[in-house]
């Protein structure tokens, strides 16, 4: 169980950072400085951070579950679905007429 706790600590910190940052973006409009010029839709950015924090939380629960079979059954499908949903978010940042163009052109 010792290696699980060592692996769980950074995951827990990252999950909390994502959840806090996403909540701050959704409620107050605050964003990290390096993201301010790049993000066109702050609400969507905030929701993406909240979902990423939840995905890390599910991984954390799966890592700390007592039975390895339960952690696999819980963690892998849930995190896969959440991370696939997160991978679609960059496509929603494009302007309506830029479907075939790469970003920035």
Question: What is shown here, in short?
Answer:
The chain has 105 residues and is mostly helical. It has helices at 2-28, 42-64, 68-87, 89-92.
Please tell me about this protein's structure:
The chain is mostly helical and 105 residues long. The chain has one domain. The protein is built from 4 helices and no strands.
Q: What key attributes describe this structure?
A:
mainly alpha; about 70% helix; about 100 residues; elongated
Topology:
Blueprint: H1 2-28, H2 42-64, H3 68-87, H4 89-92
Helix pairs in contact: 1-2, 2-3
Overall tally of domains: 1
Radius of gyration computed on alpha carbons: 16 Å
Helix vs. strand class = mainly alpha
| End-to-end C-alpha gap | 51 Å
Largest sheet, strands/sense/barrel? none
- Proportion of helical residues: over 70%
| SSE pattern | HHHH
* Shape, principal axes of CA atoms: elongated
Q: Strand portion, in percent?
A: under 5%
Tally the beta strands: 0
Total helical elements: 4
Spans of at least 5 consecutive residues whose pLDDT stays below 50 are: none
| Average residue pLDDT | 75
